[in-house]
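Quick illustration, no need to memorize.
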Amino acid sequence: MKGFRDRLAYFLDNNSTFGRITGTLWVLVAANVLFLIFSMPVITAGPALAAMYHILLKSMRHPDDILRPFKEFWIGLKGNFKQAIIVWLGFLAFMAIAIFDIDYIQASGNLGFMRWPIYLITGMVLILTSFLFPVMAAFESPLPRLFQNALYFAARNPIRAVGCAAAYALPLALTYLDLQRLPLYAFIWSTVGFAVCASLVSQMLIKDFNRFLPDPNIIEDEED
């Protein structure tokens, strides 16, 4: 009986395989739900995205710790709110202009060649933005410095840079194109979808980030 209890205790331990899987799933679900709640007023989606990256990056740097997602999300939200909302509003404004320009070019019928420069610039902005939010969550710096850091990490590995942007773009495009399975996609996005995409980006960046983060804390915890 004692042996059974010991095996059960090990099976349920946070450091066991089962414990790590359930812990990771808990972090993903909690981060995703919090991101969706704080993104409902679309204007705050940028700070919510930075806060989600704060949770995911910290969970990767502290795999043996029991993470408190709600507290960590709030820390990430407060610490990056101003900078993240500026970046997010700038991104929304750029995308609105790009979409308007593409629609205008398609309607005119004579300026089709102008689409390609717009596509190229839009792709570069998507890549830069996909790096800005994890960089923001990992490093405390003024906004100009964050842009420099994002450009640095993107330029270090152009293939990875495209992969980081694709981690969001491809699943969202698949959701849009495959309307027959929309209820399934809606369930995935509402439970873990956004967090899984952010986790993929974080996995691609964490090794490079660790080279510049000797302190194990990504962002110092602040008492409420």
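Residues 217-224 have pLDDT under 50 and may be disordered.
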